[in-house]
Amino acid sequence: MKRSTKAAAVVLMAAALFTVAGVGAFRSLRTEAPAATPAAPQDPSVPLPTGGGLDATIAYLQQRLSTIPDDWKSYASLGQAYVQQGRVTADPTYYPKAQGALERSLALQPESNEGALVGMAALAAARHDFDAALRYGEQARRVNRFDANVYGVIGDAEVELGRYPRAFATFQRMVDIKPGLSSYARVSYARELQGDVDGALRSMQAARQVAGSASDVAWASFQIGELQFNRGRIGPARVAYRYGLEADPDYVPNRMGLAKVAWASGDTRAAIAGYTEVTQRYPSPEYVVALGDLQTLVGDRSAAARQYALVRAETRLFAANGVNVDLELALFDADHGRPAAALEAARTEWSRRQSIHVADAYAWALYANGRYAEAAGYARKALALGTRNALFTFHAGMIQARLDHRAAARSFLREAIAINPHFSILHAPQARSTLARLGGAR
To answer: Model pTM greater than 0.70?
Structure first.
């Protein structure tokens, strides 16, 4: 499809999504809404869980399957619960467990097993195997084309593969079937990708309004906080993170958001304390990197080195459990002194999928290796949807500066700072210093 045709399709889909959005998805899809806890088939011989969320559901399903070992629906529910638990805990060792349960379900019932197919799609997405996620999602759609969850996993995979017009149409279909938390969240992401941050906020606020539990309120509040923070509005971001924390004190990402707000507000000591607490409770590589970068910022390089070593250990653990981390490694290695490894990871990931996030990582890896002209082409691809992403724009600006395209570099760097002056612990100061050197500081 020609670029002009793609652009037209995106604009048309943005208009289609507008109506829905006004109604009162390391790195997974940012707005991936929490799925409902998998329903466990009722049976009088096994007591139903009375609370405890995923832990209780998993315990119930395990007990049920010890009593009824050929219950394929319970195996599908258990597999889905394991996938969710892996995401919630940042522990990829749940993924082989999920695979075993889902494959057992499909072995017991290979036909019309929509739940297991959706679970396999979710598992593949959690492992960043988006081609497989799409295949399983399409199989599930052939079983039941009226299940909104099917369109959620299909659309998520299409986004990550860079098939944006198709993904936006899929999300529209999801909303048409079942307006709710998960579908509104995906509308929000579609609008954000296209640069409509106000529309993304409206959609996420609509998602929070229909949240059915405290944890869902906390999740939606975090997404609202992220949207506000990423456009430089620190006060509204703080309010959203606090709201989410009040709804569910155990939802750790809102604590991370408040630590990030502390850094953006100039309280680096509080930020380090906050990130330290967060990583002890939820050692997501993304959070560990941020803690290391803060420690680098204050000159504590030995502490930072420990965090970066932990990140590398975690990436090995993820890889050992089937998770592809090439995209994350490309950015991490480019920023932390391993340019050749960054380029290899980025090139490999680009061969798998051509999303704007992979284009940005490839551009930055090429930059780290001194290949500026090539990098500029991929930076343009990263910005092709009009996404207002300050990091993407900063990368484009630094590439243009190296090419001695001073006017373009100043324009990109000014835009990055205007979008969000606190877009990166490492790079926000670099953006300002480079702009000053180019004579573009204001």
So the answer is: yes
